[in-house]
Amino acid sequence: FLFGFHNSHTSGRHRGHDVPLPWFPHVLALTWFGSPCLQLCETNICVLWLQSDYHYEYTECDVFGSRWRVAVPNKADICTGLPDPVHGTQCAFSCSEGEFLDMQSQRCKKCAVGTYSLGTGIAFDEWDSLPSGFSNQGVNPNDEDIFTNCSSSTWTPKGDYISSNTDECTATLFYAVNLKKPGIVSFEYVYPDEGIYFEFFVQNDQCQSTDSASRWMKISETKWSKYLVCLNLTGNNVLYWRTTGYVVAGSEVKPVLLRNIGISGVSYTSECFQCKPGTYSEKPGSARCTPCPVDTYSNKGATVCLHCDPDKYSEAGSGTCKPRPACTVSDYFYTHTPCDSKGKTQLMYKWIQPKICSETVNGAVKLPASGEKQTCPPCNPGFFFSNSSTCEPCDQGSYSNGTACIKCPVGTEPVLAFEYKWWNTMPKNMRSYTLRQWLSHSENTTGWEVAGEYVYTTPGDQDVDNQMLTLKVPGYRLPQSVSKASENSELSRISFVFETTCSANCTFSFLAGYNQWLNDVVEWWRGSQAKQSYSFLIQKNTTDSFTWSFQRTGKNSEGRKHSGDMARIYSIHIANVIGGVASQCRRCAVNPAGFSSACVPCPPGHYMVNGTGVCKSCPPNTIIRADQSVGVDACIPCGPNTERNEVKRGVLDVLTTEGERMHYDFSALSNITSFQSGPRFTNKGLRYFHHFNIGLCGEKVRKMATCVDNVTESGNEVKGYVCQSTAVPSGIRSQSLVSTQPVLIGDALIGVTTDTTLSGISSPDWLFPSATGLRDVIFYFGSSESTLACKEGRSATVRLRCNPTVTAKDLITLPSNCSEGTCDGCTFHFLWESQYACPRCTTNNYRAIVSACIQGIQRTTYVWQQPLQCFGGESLPPPVVSACVSLDFWLRFGVSTGTIAAVLLMSISCYFWKKTRKLQYKYSKLVMNSSGKECDLPTADSCAIMEGEDAEDDVMYLSKKPFFSKIRRTSDGFDSVPLKSSSSLTNLELLFTS
Which residue numbers delimit the MRH domain (predicted)? Predict the structure, then answer.
């Protein structure tokens, strides 16, 4: 409406406030939108504010769970004249699905037709552009590579979904949401390639992140998978979707796709969302929109779907219709009908569904008529024709060539397998479907059809479609007559014969499903391939499905330009299948006593005697060949220092090449040991490592070394003595390494020796030069898993080197000139230095040191010979203390003995001197008493010397003067000696004079 007025005032009054008013022209045009207006009046002035100029919001909840509803202006220059705040609903208030909160009345109302609401959540299902609130970022995960620009490596909206990057940059998509109560975040994703690390985590306002063990997403093959995460804390939460590519030279990485992101826990939504094109909602209060069926379409916010014109078509969930092209031979395919009750079948033609072509357009072809009925081919081996002319499996213990079942003879057993060579109907355990790029609603479309002698790919809706054929297997079991297979030996084998005919760059792939999440490409062929056979070895019961995929071209082109390209599979055979059927029987081991005709297995370590079916044990310390030979040649000796079933629990004697026997105890090294190589870098600078696990002894009571792919949490793992995986740092906020591509290097212990060659495996000394003379003990491991590069399988050598100075138990290094652990890609070498790798000590490894005798005590101490080259075993004897005689004792003893001897000698000398004087005295008396004749002795006065004389003489002698006074002469020069006879004086004087 129009109204005019003249205002001479510069301001007005509104509820007691001054309101600055501009100068108005004489005519003011206002448009009425049907919303309440805010009226500003003073005297002859009335100004109306539209409600579209502001909106309502709630304040933060207080401690009592209450809040206020306030009006917030939509323009910065509107700050007065807004409605006053009023009490809002309680914080626990929420609306149900299909409802929204009308802020004017603060009550929940149902969404109108053509719209939907999650009630307490929000949803994002349109990705024409990045929705409001989302942020996108690309960063370089390797800070060292400053030359890689990752600013453009972000998530890209693709209409119905958003796609991640495929390079080695880290792309992060995040969204911040404020939760009023605990809720749930859900989304659908496609994660087809383990060459990209994909993680999702939530970080709340308390900086708490999702547990690192559950943040890694699972591989989803080529299907949309749904993911749910509980949001337990209210307040601000930031959702992160992050990918990092790991591109190997020559490989292509498929991106991660996201769609249908929903978040609940926001308490309410103040508006309903319009249905996106291709969907509709026909009832008020809808929680979600329904996709339009085939050949219909809808616009945004539609309440019904509209039918396409007869000359146009549309796929399910389409927002537009396309013109129908003229039908060609590429729009139909042929198949064989199932056998009828008379055992007849016929060739039949069908349009490819959904049918998009028109038969009425000029130049269009008609669907050919069905062929004449023909006799059905025989059933597949192990099956027979039932009364209803359908193929049924033979009973257990029977076999068949496809016509009738025959009981296996006594002493034989059926060879169970799945064998398909006639394709009259699709087997029950096989499924055929077509996958359009990343769209799940096309999975119901047939991809492969039976054609009697083969099964082939039908013309697809698009040349980029993947036509899938999947075979499910319940499990595997070896025949009873075969001894139990060791880990990683042949459990089963699948073989198939195929050919491809291509005018473009088609791709035919064979995939093995190791569990419900992981489906790896085993082999692929590109371009036309002549008829050929391929076999794949199955070693574990975890391989539960096989898939054949055919894609005409990988280029993004619409239409059916190469619909004549096809792949054919003529036969499929898979052995030792649980629930399988038999096409033949084999002789098995029977009870030697002949009391039972049932097949019995040969015990472990036994072989079947040729032609008898009797089990016989292998000689001691020999094992059965891996190829399950029969006869005496089936047993082969165990390797050096090993015995049947296990190594000697880490304790063994090793005979060196010099003939010396060394005793070792490797028990301390028997636990699983992990280590990694130095950092490696891809072409674009992404850092990664080679991660190794070693279980040296592999005892039964211990776990084997295990390498697992923890990117997908799919459980894809390998177990053995030595395994390897590729480890990549997970980047920002991550707390663990990402491990992928596990490879088994050694699953059998061949032997333990000091020789540098064993069973064709070499470990030359130049790989790890040693400065000591002690020989390294080498563990040789082998693997039966062969590859194109390693026809004989992989192998590994672990050198144990004695180093008593190493206190750490796990010091393992790789060759310096082969930094990845292998020089040829097949044989890996490791050096393990440890004090526990030394031989056990003996008495020859120490010597005794005897100390000096100190204070009668002497000590004997034992020390190790240097350099020390042993550990454990004999310990050093304790010091020995013994009594001893010191040098000072002998010195004192010698002096004392010498003194005593000297005194004794002097005493003896004095004694004999005294005796000599006596004899002289007596002789003098005899001379004095002699007759004076020559040669006559003096005559004795008596018969003997009387006692009195001796005493008298003695007294007389002792009473004499001292010795020095005796030599003094008298006045005449002689001593005074009394004599009895004067006649003898002259003789005595002469005697003394002489």
Answer: 652-840
Residue 82 and residue 73 in contact, taking contact as beta carbons nearer than 8 Å: yes
Structural domain of residue 472, as residue ranges?
A: 416-584
Which letter does DSSP use for residue 577 in this model? B
Quick: pLDDT tens for 564-599: 889 999 999 998 888 889 888 877 654 444 434 446
Both tokens of 25, joined, read 């022209």
Report how far residue 688's alpha carbon sits from residue 195's, in angstroms, rounded to the nearest whole number: 13
For residue 417, the SS3 value is strand
Residues 689 and 833 reside in one and the same domain:
yes
Q: What are phi and psi of 212, to 5 degrees?
A: -65, -25
Residue type present at position 689? F
Tally DSSP H helices, then E strands, for the chain: 4, 72
Asked whether residue 823 falls in the same domain as residue 730, the answer is yes
Both 355 and 472 in one domain: the answer is no
Whether 672 and 571 share a structural domain: no
Structural domain includes residue 890: no
Residue 617 and residue 615: Cα distance in Å, rounded?
Answer: 7
pLDDT value, residue 32: 35
> E strands along 246-310, which residues?
257-264, 273-274, 279-280, 290-291, 296-297, 306-307
Do 483 and 628 touch, CB atoms closer than 8 A?
yes
According to DSSP, the β-strands at 257-264 and 455-457 are unpaired
Say whether both 335 and 368 belong to one domain.
Answer: yes
DSSP state of 30: -
Asked whether residue 433 falls in the same domain as residue 544, the answer is yes
Rounded Cα gap, residues 280 and 904, in angstroms: 142
User: For residue 784, which of 704, 741, 721 has the smallest C-alpha distance?
Assistant: 721
Dist CA 225 CA 256 (whole Å): 12
pLDDT digits (tens, 9 = 90+) for 79-120: 667 788 888 887 777 788 888 888 888 888 999 999 998 888
Label residue 858 exposed, middle or buried (CB < 10 Å: 0-12, 13-18, 19+): middle
Please state the rounded mean pLDDT for residues 291-302: 91
* Strand stretches in 696-775, DSSP E: 705-708, 717-720, 722-729, 737-746, 748-753, 757-758, 761-762
Q: Sign of dihedral through CA atoms 871, 872, 874, 876?
A: positive
- The residue out of 310, 344, 376 marking a domain boundary is 376
In single-letter form, the type of residue at position 945 comes to: I
How far apart, in Å, are the Cα atoms of 913 and each of 101, 908, 916, 920? Answer: 149, 8, 5, 10
CB 600 within 8 A of CB 591: yes
3-state secondary structure 17-72: EEEECCCCCCEEECCCCCCCEEEEEECCEEEEEEHHHEEEEECCCCCCCCCEEEEE
CATH number at residue 810: 2.70.130.10
Distance CA 607, CA 32 (A): 98
Element containing residue 908 per DSSP (H, E): helix 887-929
User: Do residues 405 and 399 lie in contact, with contact meaning Cβ atoms separated by under 8 Å?
Assistant: yes
d(C-alpha 153, C-alpha 167), whole Å: 7
**Is the peptide bond between 867 and the residue preceding it cis, with omega within 30 degrees of 0?**
yes
Q: Does the pLDDT at position 946 exceed 60? A: no
**Which of 584, 613, 638 is the endpoint of a domain?**
584
| Residue 519, helix vs strand vs coil | strand
pLDDT tens figures, 234-275: 778 889 999 988 776 556 778 888 988 988 887 777 888 889
Tell me if 845 sits within 8 A of 865, measured CB to CB.
yes
Q: Please, are residues 714 and 703 in contact by the beta-carbon 8 Å criterion?
A: no
Is it the case that residue 197 has pLDDT exceeding 60?
yes
Nearest to 227 by CA among 191, 257, 185, 194: 185
Q: Answer yes or no: do 563 and 442 share one domain.
A: yes
Neighbouring residues of 901: CB distance < 8 A, sequence distance ≥ 6: none
Residue 286 makes CB contacts below 8 A (sequence gap 6+) with 98, 111, 113, 115, 116, 117
Instruction: Indicate whether this model's pTM tops 0.90.
Output: no
Q: Are 733 and 209 in contact (CB under 8 A)?
A: yes
